[in-house]
């Protein structure tokens, strides 16, 4: 396998991501920040939850992202009668072999689109827990590895909509980020009528990146440096959610890990080999808000989880970049430099 240095990998990443971004934005008009967050989650090895009202392009975004990458794609339409075995697979008795044969479910794909995930029962939703966290499926005591890269892109309607079940806390915690598409601007909606009026642009969408490229870019993102002060800042932001008076459930340690991975991916997308506190701040709401549960009093006061996270980010002191002394001291490491080794 060809070895790439980190700088070359980040250069390749920028070019590849630009192709994917342009491909997706050819279908989803006027939502560059939503597309960028989706690509950030993909390169950070996370899963994406798209939540919004019907008809704003949630499934279209998931399909456009999946078709822009030459990966295996499966779609699961979540309905109240969907069974866990429909997702993970089932062992069927083979009369000729006189043995059980495993029939893989829809989860065995590199990109899995879960449409309206909160219309299935919590029992069916829980079938995704192992696959999303451990990237494997266990059926009848046998473990099956999932392909790489692996990403679940799920859409859901707000819980106020008819026929929806709230996602369990454990399920929400496995999604790296939640994004809302929102209504388009008047100009973007006019452009949508021109582009989508005759035929769906998804029909002509061709892959612009391959699975092996995505795997290589994920490895490049892993190599992005995160200074000790930035890691501590991420821990401080997440820890503040666990003691905030407006929250009865704060963010988990998994949320801290997801926030750090997303910050590394955001830094790589910006062409940097190191993460900054700005990356933590920019991603805090998307990564943390959907995991939090406000208190009853906060709900009465119409305080949302997003508002609480924004308040925490504003109140948490931002670490200053250490000054370089020129002598290579351990306490004088800038954000973008690797700390020197002790001899």
From TrEMBL:
Protein name: ATPase
Keywords, sorted A to Z: ATP-binding, Nucleotide-binding
Keyword Nucleotide-binding: yes
Single GO MF annotation: ATP binding
InterPro entries on file: ATPase_AAA-3, CbbQ/NirQ/NorQ/GpvN, ChlI/MoxR_AAA_lid, P-loop_NTPase
Region (Disordered): 320-343
Annotated ranges, domain ATPase AAA-3: 47-176
Domain ChlI/MoxR AAA lid: start-end pairs: 240-312
Homology family: Belongs to the MoxR family.
């Amino acid at each position: 396998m060809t070895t790439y240095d980190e700088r070359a990998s980040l250069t390749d990443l920028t070019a590849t991501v630009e192709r994917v971004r342009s491909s997706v934005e050819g279908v989803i008009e006027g939502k560059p920040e939503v597309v960028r967050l989706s690509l950030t989650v993909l390169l950070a090895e996370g899963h994406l939850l798209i939540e919004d009202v019907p008809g704003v392009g949630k499934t279209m975004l998931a399909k456009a992202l999946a078709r822009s990458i030459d990966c295996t794609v499966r779609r699961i339409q979540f309905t109240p009668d969907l069974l866990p075995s429909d997702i993970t697979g089932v062992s069927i008795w083979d009369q000729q072999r006189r043995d059980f044969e495993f029939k893989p479910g829809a989860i065995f794909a590199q990109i899995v689109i879960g449409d309206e995930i909160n219309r299935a029962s919590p029992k069916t939703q829980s079938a995704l827990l192992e696959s999303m966290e451990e990237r494997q499926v266990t059926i009848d005591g046998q473990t099956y590895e999932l392909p790489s890269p692996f990403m679940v892109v799920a859409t859901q309607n707000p819980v106020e909509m008819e026929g929806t079940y709230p996602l369990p806390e454990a399920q929400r915690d496995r999604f790296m980020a939640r994004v809302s598409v929102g209504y388009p601007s008047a100009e973007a909606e006019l452009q949508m009528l021109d582009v989508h009026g005759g035929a769906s642009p998804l029909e002509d969408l061709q892959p612009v990146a391959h699975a092996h490229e995505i795997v290589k870019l994920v490895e490049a993102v892993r190599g992005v440096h995160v200074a000790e002060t930035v890691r501590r800042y991420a821990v401080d932001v997440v820890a503040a959610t666990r003691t905030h008076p407006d929250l009865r459930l704060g963010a988990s340690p998994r949320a801290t890990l997801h926030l750090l991975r997303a910050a590394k991916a955001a830094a790589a997308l910006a062409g940097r080999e190191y993460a900054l506190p700005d990356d933590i701040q920019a991603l805090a709401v998307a990564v943390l808000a959907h995991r939090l549960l406000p208190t009853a009093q906060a709900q009465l006061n119409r305080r949302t989880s997003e508002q609480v996270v924004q308040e925490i980010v504003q109140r948490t002191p931002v670490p200053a970049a250490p000054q370089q002394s020129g002598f290579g001291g351990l306490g004088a490491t800038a954000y973008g430099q690797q700390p020197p080794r002790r001899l």
